[in-house]
Amino acid sequence: MNQPEKTPRGPGTPASAQSGRFFKFASVRDVEHLAVVNRVLAIPSKRFARPLITFLTRSEMDAILATTDRETWIGGRDHALLLTMYNTGARASELINLKCGQVSFGSPTMVQLHGKGRKDEVCHFGRRQHVSCSSGSAF
After folding, report:
1. Is 107 strand, coil or helix?
2. CA-CA distance, 15 to 2, in Å (whole number)?
3. N or C: which end of the chain has fewer CB within 10 A?
4. Residues of the chain with pLDDT under 70
5. CB within 8 A of 61, min separation 6: which ones?
6. Domains (ranges, CATH) in the chain?
7. What's residue 2's pLDDT?
C-alpha cells in the first residue's frame, strides 16, 4: 500500500512560506476576515542560524588534486577543471557553459566567465594553472 510522503510542516518550511503569502493575499482581498488574517500573519517565523560557508585550504586542495591521475586524459581534464574552479571561484554551471573562445592561453592565461545574474568576469591564471591547462588541452 502506498502511503503519501510526510511533508514537514511548521515554521520555516516552504509550506509555511506559501501559507504566509496566501494570507497576505487574503488580507487585501477578504477584508471581512482581516482580524483572523492579521492574527495568522503575526505568528513569528522560525529563526535559525545558517552555517558559515567555509573554503578549502591550500593543503586540502592539494590533497584533492593529488587524487587525479594526470597521466590519463580524463585525469588531466579533472585536474584542470578542479584547479580552475579553485583559482577562479567559478560555479560548476559556469564551467559547463564555457566555450573554447572564452579561454586564452596567452601571456597571461585568461578565462572569461559568464556568471550568475548575467555578470561577466575575466580571471587571470597563475603559472601553475597555465601549465596544467595548456599541457593537456583539457578544455
Report:
1. coil
2. 22
3. N
4. 1-18, 126-139
5. 82, 86
6. 12-48 (no CATH), 58-136 (1.10.443.10)
7. 56
What lies within 8 Å, CB to CB, of 83 at 6+ separation is 65, 128, 129, 132, 133
Radius of gyration, CA atoms only, the chain: 25
Tens of pLDDT, residues 57-78: 889 989 999 999 999 999 998 9
Structural contact between residues 108 and 125, judged by C-beta atoms closer than 8 angstroms: yes
- What is the C-alpha to C-alpha distance for residues 51 and 72, in angstroms, rounded to an integer? 38
Cα(63)–Cα(66) distance, integer angstroms: 5
Q: Cβ distance 126 to 109 under 8 Å?
A: no
Could you give the C-alpha distances from 24 to 18, 47, 55, in angstroms and in order?
10, 20, 39
Q: Which residues pair with 103 in a beta bridge?
A: 111
Cα separation, 50 vs 10, in Å, equals 18
Give DSSP secondary structure letters for 15-58: HHHHHHHHHHHHHHH-GGGHHHHHHHHTSPPPP-PPPPP----H
On the CB side of 52, CA atoms within 13 Å amount to 2
